[in-house]
């Protein structure tokens, strides 16, 4: 008995097919973006899944989801750093305060960080 081809190419649609058991399945390979998805990307992914499932599915099926989430994550990190720095300057939280009263500096920086994170969540993640 002749062994069937394990791979076929369809000229009509340009797809390759792989034999699995008795059936040929399309050999679809999605381009993976190797950039890591951090905290903000994971938050945005959850938001997309729950509130914009059509957009989530479109990004997932097109193979662009990971790249998109990595971009969102990078933007959020950049904005967070900038906002934190601007708020600290505006409120006078600087190295002089850190040297004079370290606990006060830590408390104020934590409050600034929390406020900046809330701004990122409302403007970039949950919009």
UniProtKB/TrEMBL annotation:
InterPro entries (alphabetical): TnpV
Protein name: TnpV protein
């Amino acid at each position: 008995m002749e062994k069937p081809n394990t791979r076929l190419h369809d000229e009509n649609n340009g797809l390759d097919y792989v034999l699995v058991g008795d059936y040929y399945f399309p050999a679809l390979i999605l381009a993976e973006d190797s950039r890591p998805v951090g905290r903000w990307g994971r938050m945005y992914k959850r938001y997309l899944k729950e509130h914009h499932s059509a957009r989530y599915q479109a990004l997932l099926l097109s193979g662009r989801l990971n790249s998109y989430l990595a971009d969102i994550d990078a933007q959020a990190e950049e904005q967070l750093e900038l906002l934190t720095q601007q708020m600290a300057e505006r409120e006078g939280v600087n190295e002089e305060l850190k040297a004079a009263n370290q606990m006060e500096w830590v408390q104020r920086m934590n409050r600034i960080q929390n406020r900046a994170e809330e701004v990122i969540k409302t403007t970039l993640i949950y919009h």
